[in-house]
Amino acid sequence: MYLRHGTFSYLPELTDEEIAAQVRYALLNNWPVSIEYTDDPHPRNTYWEMWGLPLFDLDEPDGVLAEINACRATFPRHYVRVNAYNATYTKQTTALSFLVQRPAEEPGFELARAEGPDRRQIYSLRSYATDRPQGQRYGG
Q1: What is the pLDDT of residues 10-47, one digit of tens each?
Q2: Helix, strand or coil for residue 59?
Q3: Which residues contact 103 (CB under 8 A, 6 or more apart)?
């Protein structure tokens, strides 16, 4: 199953040059960039683990790419995404978010159905990745 997360989810995987171009665009707009990772990609799991602190006051994407590669090397079987924040209107809003790594095998989701009152059907999603404990969800 190929999960769709973020801005460029329906495009082919981004190369490092394309990632650098998107990071450069964010930096030119004065959007601080952060890197996050997870092994539980449920669509409602919006709070991923942060890799370090947000990267403020950068002019070139080289520093961000070095941190992305360090995160990829540390967590080779996790999802890794880049977020850019726009604080223009006195509140932080996500201006750009996209995946830069996904595991080789994505287990997918189970659609669970339950019957509610008056024969109403209630559906929910459960990630197959959560069958294993955290840290062991993608092998290793």
Answers
A1: 888 899 999 999 999 999 999 999 999 998 777 778 88
A2: coil
A3: 39, 77, 78, 79, 138
